[in-house]
């Protein structure tokens, strides 16, 4: 075989073997989701909490991984997504995670959705749905109904008692010149 023909064949094979950037990104996303699912499975195995896992990705790499630890910590807010946000924020030393992506084994609950917004995350990828979670005994549809004002019975009594100086903290915040707005 002529040398030029051999070189051309080798070059062709190399191009075929290297995945496109889109394929590479998709493969990475699969790995991130699988890691989130593994976290959920690990958490259940350890008896630390419900069957939920999450990872936060920055610059195409896993920054932190976490699973639900409500049972371990006795903290009802220790959902996988919240645990991951706390870890990532502590690691980066900032509350703004707008350059990160969160992968969750399941659709975030309303509390985590709020935390995700406060953390300024721009993208969330989730696997199982809220309906899958409800099927496993984790039904958050009632909280969505409360938020939407559709709940027929309120579990929590919400009483508005205005006019007791509740504007003082805001006045102080507005006057503060060295504050960090977030
Ligand atoms: Zn949650």
TrEMBL record:
CDD domains: nucleoside_deaminase (cd01285). Residues 1-24 form the signal peptide. It comes from Anaeroselena agilis. Residues 27-141 form the CMP/dCMP-type deaminase domain. This is Nucleoside deaminase. InterPro entries: APOBEC/CMP_deaminase_Zn-bd, CMP_dCMP_dom, Cytidine_deaminase-like. Keywords: Metal-binding, Signal, Zinc. Pfam families: dCMP_cyt_deam_1. It comes from the Bacteria.
């Amino acid at each position: 075989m002529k040398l030029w023909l051999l070189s051309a064949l080798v070059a062709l094979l190399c191009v075929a073997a290297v995945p496109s950037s889109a394929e590479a990104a998709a493969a990475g996303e699969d790995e991130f989701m699988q890691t989130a699912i593994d976290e959920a499975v690990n958490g259940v195995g350890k008896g630390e909490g419900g069957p939920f896992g999450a990872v936060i990705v920055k610059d195409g790499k896993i920054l932190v991984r976490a699973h639900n630890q409500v049972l371990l910590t006795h903290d009802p807010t220790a959902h996988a997504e919240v645990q991951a946000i706390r870890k990532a924020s502590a690691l980066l030393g900032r509350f703004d995670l707008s350059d990160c992506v969160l992968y969750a084994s399941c659709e975030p609950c309303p509390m985590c959705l709020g935390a995700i917004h406060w953390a300024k995350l721009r993208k969330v990828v989730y696997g199982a749905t809220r309906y899958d979670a409800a099927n496993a005994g984790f039904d958050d549809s009632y909280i969505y109904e409360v938020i939407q004002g559709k709940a027929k019975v309120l579990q929590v009594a919400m009483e508005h008692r205005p006019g007791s100086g509740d504007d003082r903290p805001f006045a102080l915040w507005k006057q503060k010149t060295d504050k960090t707005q977030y």
